[in-house]
């Protein structure tokens, strides 16, 4: 399709304009994090730091137990990802590859749970976890992940529906049992959507703020998101360490996204179809 | 042969229980982490439930107080709906424009797609810090840039008139997810449609309104619903960026419920608040669905559309 020249110019100016909105805040954080105290608080603002202050990162990192926060974030992220992959693939397989009583009703029920506002279950969940003695531990953040998540199950189920039924019938005739079929045949096939779910889960758990805010009390239990928010709350004027840690916090998701981009784009188009 | 038929019957026997074993994790999770809490929250809403002492049954007192004696309830509703009224159309428009831009057959579109999606992977905590710094009324870069072109920027986070817009602008930064949904949808429209239209002499604008828009109405519907629900529940950014201020001008409903529960320790009252929002969300979704038949065009996927998932924020 040929495009008129004027149209092309408009398209690229719009693209440029929007890029400014999406990318310049990142650039500004990087530039701010590398300045000296005087530079960052000067007005009119200095755009570029005179000397790049790499030691800001070291100072910031050592000013709070960010190492502990990082460890907690990693624990929660890794464990929830394992939990989601395991539980969601099992459940999605059940919904996609079998016929059973109440299947459709249960599936619709599952989709409906995605509409429940978070506030409604927030209070009883807090009380439930409190009763179990889980408050101020990482358990409330980790354990629910082992029971699946509606959206991920939905994505996986959409994928599994597209695979011909002959596959498991052949394996059954060969004498494989149902769980062998699932683990040996289907798990390898599900590689792409499983990567998608792992990425989506890593992003959302790494970034989660409200869960840790409600369930964690001791600093030693904080995740990076909560630790950064708490640090900002107390030291509102220490903009340099705040900017440095912010940058540290957004690097892992950005890198993961850049690597796994393909899976996200393909995965979303799979669910739209 | 006998062997095979024997196997068949044995797997049919397993079959009855096996599917339920597969979905068992979700069933347990649903009962323990969703249905149980949901029912319990409804029960709590009929109690006076302070955190420290015994709960007492009060009937519909919480709901009565909410509707008749709590001005903040109405204020928070108005602020939240005001936010949704600004945010939802804006967000949809931006998502659609971006999706249209990156589906143009030009070089470098993948690069722009990446850039536009990037903020969507950033934590709410980081977003609030980044934008808080940009909006900063003393040292903020935004007002400095505005001053260069002769505009005196408002005191974004300090002025009750403007604070809500800071939340809108910071929220819209994560528009990439919705853009991507539109993008994949537009990509899926058969190119023959456009070619035929071009032969008939339809320009880009005409093609957009006669082909693109009608083809993606189900996706628009999906995006409207998810963004309305998302806007009504906005909490993290408010908590982090403005804390509900200045002068409670961004005291959104989500924050109102959260504070009633965890700051004022009125668990029963907060449950009533939450259930009210739940019902509003249900009704709104139903209304959007009902009215959608006038503007949503389905080709062959009438059933599938309604089952689409919602991305967790």
Total domain modules of chain A: 2
How much of the residues of chain A is beta strand, in percent? under 5%
Helix-strand string of chain B: HEEHHHHHHHHHHHHH
Summed up, the helix count of chain A is: 14
Q: Could you say how many structural domains of chain B there are in total?
A: 1
CATH topology category name of the largest domain in chain A: MetI-like fold
Global Rg of chain A: 24 Å
CATH class of chain B: Mainly Alpha
Classify the helix fraction of chain B into a percent range. 55-70%
Derived structural class of chain B = mainly alpha
Q: Identify the CATH architecture of the largest domain in chain A.
A: Orthogonal Bundle
Strand content of chain B: under 5%
CATH superfamily of chain B: MetI-like
Structural class by SSE content of chain A: mainly alpha
Number of helices of chain B: 14
**Greatest interface (CB-CB under 8 A), with counts per chain:** A-B, 104 and 104 residues
Q: What do we call the CATH topology of chain B? A: MetI-like fold
CATH architecture of chain B: Orthogonal Bundle
Summarize the biggest pleated sheet of chain B. 2 strands, antiparallel
Brief sketch in words of this structure:
Chain A is an all-alpha fold and 273 residues long. Helices cover 74% and strands 0% of the residues of chain A.
Describe this structure in words.
The complex is a heterodimer of chains A (273) and B (313). By secondary structure, chain A is mainly α. Chain A folds into two domains: 5-53, no CATH class; 60-272, MetI-like fold (Orthogonal Bundle), CATH 1.10.3720.10. Helices cover 74% and strands 0% of the residues of chain A. In chain A, helix 3 crosses helix 14 (239-272). Chain A is globular and about 75 Å long. The mean pLDDT of chain A is 89. Chain B has a single domain, classed as MetI-like fold. The chains are: A mainly alpha (273), B mainly alpha (313). Chains A and B meet through helix 1, helix 4, helix 5, helix 6 and helix 8 of A and helix 1, helix 3, helix 4, helix 5 and helix 8 of B.
